[in-house]
Amino acid sequence: MAEVTARPTASQPAATELPKARSGRVPDLPILEKRNWLIHLYYVRKDYDACKITIKEQLQETQGMCEYAVYVQALIFRLEGKIHESLELFQTCAILRPRCADNLKQVARSLFLLGKHKAAVEVYSDAAQHNQKDWEIFHNLGVCYMQLKYFNKAKDQLNNALQLNRHDLTYIMLGKIYLMEGDRDKAIEVYKKAVEFSPENTELLTTLGLLYLELEIYQKAFEYLGNALTYDPCNYKAILAAGSMMQTHGDFDVALSKYRIVACAVPESPPLWNNIAMCFFGKKKYVAAISCLKRANYLAPFDWKILYNLGLVHLTMHQYASAFHFISAAVHLQPKLAELYMLLAVALTNLEDAENARLAYQKASALDTCNPLISLNYAILLYNQGDKKGAVLQYYEMKRKVHALKESTLEFDPEMVDIAQKLGTALQLGEVAIWAKPGKDSKSKPRGTASSTQPLGSNQALGQAMSSAAGYAKTMSQAIGSSTQLAKVPSLPLEPKPNEPTAEELTIKRQEQIQPIEQAKES
Amino acid sequence: MAAAASSAPSSGSAGDGTRATSKWLDAHYDPVANLHTFSSCVTLADLHGDGDYKLVVGNFGSTGHEMKLKVYQGTSLLSENTLPDLPTSVVSFLMEQHEPRMPALAVASGPYIYVYKNLRPYFKFTLPPMEPNPMEKVVWEQAKEDKVDLLSMKEMLEAIRENAEMPLSVQSLRFLTLDPPEMDSFVNQHKSQPIKRQTVMTCMATLKKNRVDEDAISCLVIGTENMEILILDPEAFTILSKVTIPSVPTFLDVAGQFDVEYRLTVACRNGSIYILRRDSKRPKYCIELSAQAVGLVRIQKNIIVACSDETLRGYTQKGKKLWGVTLPATPITLGIMDEKFQSFQAVLVALANLEVHIYRDKNLVNVIQVPDIVTSISFGHYGREDNTLIMTTKGGGLIIKILKRTSTFHKGDTAVGVPVAQSIKLSVPKKTKLYVDQTLRERESGVAMHQVFQTDLSRIRLMAARAYVRALECSMTPVSESLQEPLKLNAVVQGMGPTFKLCLNLQNMSENRAVANLLICFVYDENRYSIERPFFKAPMLIPGLNYPLATFVECLGDQGISDIIKVFVLSEGNSRPLLTAHISMPVSEGLAAA
């Protein structure tokens, strides 16, 4: 309220001063910097209204010569988004007090905000000549070069800044440049140094954790994310990342309780609702999963991962028509993912559109190189359609992929192994041995033999396996129970997306986990 | 949120305000005390040496122009002195050893320190003027002897301003802003005046001279706008020591004794904190905050700073960062809470969200809810009470709280508990009967639904394609297809009715060919509308320009019915239109209202 009443009397000091000045022979000129401290105090308290009034008074009294008042006015303008006005005022400051590095820094900053990075670099270099020991100038120069994509120069400048004085922000920028160059190891090195320097910076800890997550060094990732959460239990990035790791280990309840914190802090985050939904999915609360996914989809309608998961959940619910819509929307947004076409084919098969299903499988196997599930599912479709030759071809294709995968020491989903063996028998190929070779999956062996002894091998039996509603619940639970093993099967084809924002990464993980469930079901 | 949440375990129950403030007694609250001030201008002093501490406030007045030095005793105003200018800082200090020990008050304001003894003006100290630029001096000497004309004088001064390290005096600066006609009189008026440069004070603190006792003689330490720290002798007011620092000081903290060893911590406007020691000519350590300091206190050997980026940070006196916590809102001011009985020291942080947080190191130990934004805070002896918290608010209120003698604060590390948010249930909608029914239906007849949908989709695509082709064939689109006359038309209806203004914007899209001989024709239901000019000739269209063509439409019917008006753009001698636009007219509100 004081500000409002202050306005009419704003000119008072000037008015009272004039008569006094006349009584003396020569008018006393006011001291320019008299209220600088007050302006500064209001400014740091972010009481911008009071600050502006004081600035106005001060400028009136000194007839616009108070450099600091103009300077702060410009800073306030910039905060209000009036960058051009502020730039003009900074230039006035430069006239009132030339050769001042501070002023040049601010001019450069305004130019930077206007996107004139080249001009900003020039002004910063100028400022650096006036003040050679200011880390801020070097840091900002580095950031400008980064924006201009001169990464080497940017790194030099940022390292200069670090030599003058170490700041978290400089480390973050340096790490970012390495990431932009695709040099993850270097970036990790930088972030590690930064964490050493300021061990409580949750942003640094989270970034480092996410980097390790990308590199699949889960132990370290969890360590750093956990550290971040001890310092700031509400850090939503860290919670999302840690939660997704818990999900891969099947700790759905713990993950959900962590997500509740995020739901309060960032209720409109699409990846959050996606992950919550997949937790519910893991707990077999499908309706809750669908409503959460729909919320996620509402918040981010063009995110194909959410659509993918929606399709998946609807497939599980036997709502094939809906599933088809979500998956085809996802395909439109992400036309290069083989798994999507496979899901589409599964939906189409259930909608009795075998023609298109076959086309979708063709597209999927054309895009994919290493996911045996696609070939397996395709083989089953072909077999059911009576194209035994094509089925055998796909079966061998699957075998090839399995062999290729065996090198990466991964265990296969017993569900998948089981079905494949049944198919093998049905096709009268009788090569059970390929599954025995991995030798790690002790469970799959007895199963495999058991199934081969069963009098299967008929069209009918396979058809049953594909669509019998009763069987689903059971197979589902098994698949989820052993999701730790499953999670890794398809992880390879999904890797080439490192540029996604961190939170998105989680969704990928989540999908990976869900995917095999669906595949198992289909086959 | 976060900080409040973490306080929960420390206060024993949920960290809400009522529970937390119970450590304090509400002694006095006057929302209209008309006290507008900052922490630096509030001090508690035993002014009469009788153990009854008074509150001294350098008040700005509600408009910032009624400056008063107010002294409170208990809840009432004891005395009031008018101040000549805005007070920068108010401190109390002992000037001499006489009994009874009655501290003097020092009020820093502009370039002066006004010293009050026994609440009466006693002495006025003026900062020594700064050395003016010798070149500037020469210029004005010449002006005095009329040896130089105004323009060359201006040029010389400008050159000095550009190149000299030392800034010009106010007189020269003002001269440089003047227009040529005003210059003459200005120079005549001022030329006999010696040029001078005067600086002002920005902060002030006290430093014990040679003893640690509470009633020891203290020196005044002042920070000035020209980036200097001065230490003044309390008796003679001579400058004992002078240090230059790299930026303008804003907050000062002093520890030690002048004659033995002391340490000055100075927060500056460039966002750095400098630490100086006795005999150091330059700052010994520097802390770069990367944000502006809002307040600075020292607890034992640690420096605690609140920054404008909503953090509170602790540093050692050598400038090493110890910890940092995020504050829930912008900090407004800092105060130190020094409870002698339990030797409990903490920092009081007034926040913009109407709370005062008390931190012991990095742990939040107490939250006080206040009715207004606290702008100044001080803790100490008041009246005969030892632990009093005195706050003034933005609206001019005065709040006095007394710490209960039974209150204790947690001293140890408080383990960070589970955030409150974790126990809040997720808002997942319940499944409805409708949803279940739909799901069942889809499960039963999913295949049929899919097939019907696909058929309809194909059909709608076909229809759309047909309609598009037809529109192209009949030139019913607002963008013409013909290569000779590439035109664009859009229409806007203005007004509420019954008379509307119909504005057509016609544009020639071709690169370089003008289009002439165009006709515009309106087709409409004549029972409903009448158009001023239903048929007219368009001007020649220059490429790229927008031609607004307006006409008035009168709505005839009195039932609020609206209709479509069609606009055709025709070329002369051709019955097929080039463009067509359908304008759906709004309902005439003028009639509806009548």
Automatic annotation (TrEMBL), chain A:
SUPFAM superfamilies given in the database record: TPR-like (SSF48452)
Keyword Cytoplasm: yes
Region of interest called Disordered, as start-end residue ranges on this chain: 1-21, 438-468, 484-523
Keywords: Cell membrane, Cell projection, Cilium, Cytoplasm, Cytoskeleton, Membrane, Repeat, TPR repeat
Localisation: Cell projection, Cilium membrane; Cytoplasm, Cytoskeleton, Microtubule organizing center, Centrosome, Centriolar satellite
Ranges for the TPR repeats: 168-201, 202-235, 304-337
Matching Pfam families: TPR_11 (PF13414), TPR_2 (PF07719), TPR_8 (PF13181)
Top-rank taxon, per record: Eukaryota
Amino acid composition bias (Polar residues), ranges on this chain: 449-467
GO terms of biological process kind: cilium assembly; protein localization to cilium
UniProt cross-references to SMART domains, sorted A to Z: TPR
Record bears the keyword Cell membrane: yes
Family indicated by similarity: Belongs to the BBS4 family.
Protein name: BBSome complex member BBS4
Organism of provenance: Python bivittatus (Burmese python)
UniProt gene name: BBS4
UniProtKB/TrEMBL annotation, chain B:
Bardet-Biedl syndrome 1 protein GAE domain location: 487-589
Subcellular compartments: Cell projection, Cilium membrane; Cytoplasm, Cytoskeleton, Microtubule organizing center, Centrosome, Centriolar satellite
Transmembrane segments: none
Segments forming domain Bardet-Biedl syndrome 1 N-terminal: 24-277
Pfam family, one: BBS1
Matches recorded under SUPFAM superfamilies: WD40 repeat-like (SSF50978)
Tagged with keyword Cytoplasm: yes
Keywords carried by this UniProt record: Acetylation, Cell membrane, Cell projection, Cilium, Cilium biogenesis/degradation, Cytoplasm, Cytoskeleton, Membrane, Olfaction, Protein transport, Sensory transduction, Transport, Vision
Phylogenetic placement of the source organism: Eukaryota, Metazoa, Chordata, Craniata, Vertebrata
GO molecular function, one term: smoothened binding
Subunit description: Part of BBSome complex, that contains BBS1, BBS2, BBS4, BBS5, BBS7, BBS8/TTC8, BBS9 and BBIP10. Interacts with the C-terminus of RAB3IP. Interacts with CCDC28B and ALDOB. Interacts with PKD1.
GO CC aspect terms: axoneme; BBSome; centriolar satellite; ciliary membrane
Name of this protein: BBSome complex member BBS1
Keyword Nucleotide-binding carried by entry: no
Biological process annotations from GO: non-motile cilium assembly; protein localization to cilium; protein transport; retina homeostasis; sensory perception of smell; visual perception
InterPro entries given in the database record: BBS1 (IPR028784), BBS1_N (IPR032728), GAE_BBS1 (IPR056419), WD40_repeat_dom_sf (IPR036322)
